[in-house]
Amino acid sequence: MGAHSRKCDWCGSGTPIVRDMEPLNSSYQYWCVECARALIIKGDPIETYRELEGEPIYGRLLDEHCALKRFYSFATA
Q: Which domain of life is it from (predicted)?
């Protein structure tokens, strides 16, 4: 199943924008923009990720909402 036909693993309804490449729980790999934003605000951002939409949406969310300076990795194919 391609990412374009998936739904967010957390809310079950949003279209995923980012994939967690090193998830703690393999059931939660794909995140929509709202759920990804909530993770960042909560202080638990995805550290190794792949953008799914071709635009750096998740990267912009990190820039806007992440106060902690941690190391993040954009996974390449």
A: Bacteria
